[in-house]
């Protein structure tokens, strides 16, 4: 398998977490979407030009982080962590929380970041609305974690792969310490071997951005 991704992309981090949890072998292909030549080459290969993208052993192109993870979980059912639980009710909840996190948290965080990048042109009313929305969703997650070890029960799932990449930014910009259960969850997530592998890639990519060797995606 080949994974086309960028380490600083949260959706790429989501897939990386899943692949490392599954202990799946893959060939990494980092795509610099902010570099015109890299973007052009990737768009010729995959016209939508979005990462992450998985190329299967059968050379099938599989886009979208949640679909990639479900494919990998089915491809390696006996290997590593089961990311889509076999129990029907838990699997439905896992897919629900995954979609909510992508739509209500990850995408909203991206919009909030974009507003903050250009303070001269940012809409302060919009910023406040986004901030309120994010804090409300963080409280929703904190309430769920009152009774669950991981987001959908005792085991890490697809939903956790979606949530964990959002928490470093939430920790520094939304006072994650105010949420006791989320703080506990973040502490345990940082001990996972899969997260440590992803963190190493993130830190390397951030260093390369700082020294000018790699543009920001």
Automatic annotation (TrEMBL):
Residues 1-80 form the GST N-terminal domain. Gene3D superfamilies: 1.20.1050.10, Glutaredoxin (3.40.30.10). Keywords: Transferase. It holds the Pfam family GST_N_3. Residues 95-209 form the GST C-terminal domain. One of its GO terms (cellular component) is cytoplasm. One of its GO terms (molecular function) is transferase activity. CDD domains: GST_C_family, GST_N_family. This is Glutathione S-transferase family protein. It comes from Shewanella hanedai (Alteromonas hanedai).
């Amino acid at each position: 398998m080949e994974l086309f991704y960028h380490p600083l992309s949260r959706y790429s981090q989501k897939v990386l977490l899943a692949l490392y949890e599954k202990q799946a072998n893959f060939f990494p292909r980092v795509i610099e979407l902010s570099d015109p030549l890299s973007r052009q080459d990737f768009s010729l290969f995959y016209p939508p030009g979005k990462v992450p993208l998985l190329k299967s052993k059968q050379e099938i192109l599989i886009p979208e982080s949640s679909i990639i993870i479900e494919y990998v979980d089915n491809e390696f059912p006996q290997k590593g962590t089961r990311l889509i639980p076999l129990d029907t009710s838990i699997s439905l909840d896992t897919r629900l929380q995954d979609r909510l996190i992508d739509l209500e948290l990850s995408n909203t965080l991206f919009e909030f970041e974009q507003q903050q990048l250009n303070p001269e042109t940012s809409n302060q009313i919009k910023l406040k609305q986004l901030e309120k929305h994010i804090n409300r969703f963080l409280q929703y997650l904190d309430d769920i974690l009152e009774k669950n070890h991981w987001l959908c029960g005792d085991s890490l799932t697809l939903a956790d792969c979606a949530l964990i990449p959002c928490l470093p930014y939430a920790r520094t910009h939304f006072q994650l310490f105010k949420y006791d259960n989320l703080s506990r969850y973040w502490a345990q997530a940082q001990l996972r071997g899969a997260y440590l592998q992803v963190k190493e890639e993130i830190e390397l990519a951030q260093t390369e951005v700082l020294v000018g060797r790699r543009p920001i995606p």
